[in-house]
Write a structure and sequence with these properties.
There is one protein chain. The mean pLDDT is 80. The protein has three helices and four strands, in the order ααββββα. With 92 residues, the chain is of the alpha+beta class. 13% of the residues are buried. It has two domains: 1-29, no CATH class; 44-91, no CATH class. The protein has helices at residues 3-8, 11-26, 87-91, and strands at residues 44-45, 61-66, 69-74, 79-86. Residues 28-51 have a biased composition (Polar residues). Keywords: Plasmid. Residues 1-61 are annotated as: Disordered.
Length: 92
């Protein structure tokens, strides 16, 4: 359905089209972006090399890789405190 057609379509058809769009997006097999406050426990610890350019994490925090994203995790609760970005973009 083209955008001009969507605007002139009855509401029931517009809702149906929007539902299909949401379904198409949710069916992609891309890993979701982690968010601050979510659990980082499932992430793998990131062992930064001295040439990686990353400072040591603050005391009580560690770097982890969650869904291909580098995150900073509170080690006492394993909650994500900061999402730094896609690991590939940060280490190239």
């Amino acid at each position: 359905m083209k955008s001009a057609d969507i605007a002139s379509a009855p509401a029931s058809e517009r809702i149906s089209h929007q539902g299909r769009q949401r379904q198409d997006v949710s069916q992609r097999n891309e890993p979701s972006t982690p968010r601050t406050g979510e659990s980082g426990k499932q992430g793998q610890p990131f062992n930064q090399a001295s040439e990686s350019g990353f400072d040591r994490p603050p005391q009580g925090q560690e770097y982890r890789v969650v869904n291909d994203h580098l995150v900073l995790v509170d080690t006492s609760k394993f909650r994500i405190v900061k999402v730094l970005g896609l690991l590939n973009n940060l280490t190239d």
